[in-house]
Amino acid sequence: MTRQGSPPSGPGDRPGDPFGCPAAATATVDGRGVLTSWSEGAERLLGYAESEAVGRGATMLLADGVPEGGLPAGLLPDGGAPRWNGTVTLRHRDGRPLDVRVLAHRQDATDGSPGGWLLVSALRGTEAVAEDAELGRWAFDQCPCAIAVYDTGLRLRRVNTAMGGVIGLPEDEIRGLSLSEIGGKPQSRELDEQMRAVLDSGTGIDARTYMRTGGEAEEHAWSARLAPLRDEEGRVRGVCLAAHDVTEEVLARERLLLLNSASLRIGTTLDVNRTAWELADVCVPQLADFVSVDLLEHLSAGAEPPPGPVTGPVPLRRVAHRSRSEEGAPDAWVKEGDVQVYPDFTPLAASLASGRPVLNVMTDPAMRRWAELIPERASYARKYGFHWVMAVPVLARGTTLGVAVFSRFLGAVPFAPDDVLLAEEITARAAVCIDNARRFTREQNTSLALQRSLLPHHLPRANAVEIASRYLPASPHPGVGGDWFDVIPLSGARVALVVGDVVGHGIQASATMGRLRTAVRTLADVDLPPDELLTHLDDLVIRLSAEAGAEQTSGEVGATCLYAVYDPISRRCTLAGAGHPPPVVVTPDGRTHPVEMSVGPPLGVGGLPFESVDFELPEGTVLALYTDGLVDGRGRDTDEGRRVLGEILARPAASLDAVCGAVLSALLPDGGAPDDVALLLARTKVLDAAHVATWDVPADPAEVARTRGYVTEQLRDWRLEDAIFATELITSELVTNAIRHATPPIQLRLIHDLSLICEVSDSSTTVPHLRRARAFDEGGRGLLLVAQLTQRWGSRHNPTGKTIWAEQLLHEENGET
Question: Between the CA atoms of 411, 413, 414 and 418, what dihedral angle is there, to the nearest 10 degrees?
Answer without folding.
Answer: -130
